[in-house]
Amino acid sequence: MINLPRGTQDILPGESEKWQYLERKFIELCSLYNYQEIRTPIFEHTEVFQRGVGDTTDIVQKEMYTFTDRGDRQLTLRPEGTASVARAYVQHKLHGHVKQPQKLFYHGPMFRYERPQAGRMRQFVQFGVEALGSADPAIDAEVIDFAMTLYQSVGLKSLRLVLNTLGDQQSREAHREALINHFTPVKEELCSDCQVRLEKNPLRVLDCKKDRNHESMKTAPKILDYLTEDSKDYFEQVKKYLDELGVEYVVDPNLVRGLDYYNHTAFEIMSEAEGFGAITTLSGGGRYNGLVEELDGPDTPGIGFALSVERLLMALAAEGIELPVEHALDCYIVALGEEAELKASGIMKSLRMADIKVDKDFLGKKMKAQFKAADRENAKFVLIIGDHELEQGIVEIKDMSNGTQEQVSFDAIINYIKERI
Ligand code: HAM
Fold first, then answer.
1. Closest atom of ligand 1 relative to the 130 alpha carbon
2. How many domains does the chain have?
3. What residues make up the domain containing 393?
4. pLDDT of residue 212
5. Is residue 217 part of a domain?
6. What residue's CA is closest to ligand 1, atom 20?
7. Is 24 known as a binding-site position?
8. pTM higher than the cut 0.85
9. What are the tens digits of pLDDT across the range 69-125?
């Protein structure tokens, strides 16, 4: 027996209906908020993520599935969606499109070589939205509201929205300087990764899991103290819009995101449900005004977020929420005898063409076992056809909700069922 690779999962019938349900919910909400779908490849040139996500991030340094193909190209299974969307935006010159901002959504598998645990997979599915081409704080609020509304629409209640600003270029440089000055005296006490981070990208030090409890972390300079007036203003506007939309949030100046492209607004949504597990982040996002330019496009503002379906399902389970997905057939055909079996196939085809969900037995089971199967499939009606019925050109239709039974001629079956479902 060959098992699936570590950090991946099979989603079997019974469970897959939940995934389809969530996908439908997401797409419906995208339509309400006017986001349109973009589909990009599962793999990209490695450079897209090196330049997009950032060379010093854990994702690029440690977590990418990178391979050389037979034509000697360096390719990577996408670890996230934003860099790919920005790459496509540049390639197809979407910045020149009349419709601005471009409001896009995507859903599909992402790949990260992480240590698997509950809620942390090597292949996981993200739903994400990206709005490119607008630097209006109203759209930051729209994206955040979208995320919260999606969770609320499936019944989640124990949510916490954490908000921060990472400021503009100038704020970030001042903060960077302050971080270097702060951590350099204790450099030797930090982990080897942080010693490198301190030189390449000191903000990353704040995100270190190993050095989280080091004394110097508590007193580290906060971005909020280095914000330019413009950045402060922008953040205030975002909050105003969130208030207007009735979105509750807490500001956490220590929130830094794990990807390099962010500036200004950054946010994460956590589950506060009891027993959710160690990893409580359900989704994250923020503004990435330099990303399109980094990928050779024009200077373009952007904001977006992504969630994973795996963690969404965990949050639903933790809050005891059952999704309204039930597997049910309109009809099940119980056929007895060779001739009846043949006729049953024909009837089944015509019912299906009339949008009636129907199935029958394919294992030559006895009548009782066929009825059992009909029950298991939650069939609303059972059509019974044997030699006697064949001769008369009728079927017996049993209404499973009340046990009543009627004879219906072949050509009246579709109407009979349609009137009753
Ligand atoms: P991220 O924070 O790396 O951001 O991932 C977003 C979400 O994907 C996380 O909050 C989490 O729910 C889920 N996720 C990440 N890694 C895993 C994993 N190994 N297993 C299960 N779920 C996972 C991004 O990916 C950005 N592209 C979000 C964004 C869009 N920012 C702007 N636009």
1. 33
2. 2
3. 331-420
4. 85
5. no
6. 120
7. no
8. yes
9. 999 999 999 999 999 999 999 999 999 999 999 999 999 999 999 999 999 999 999
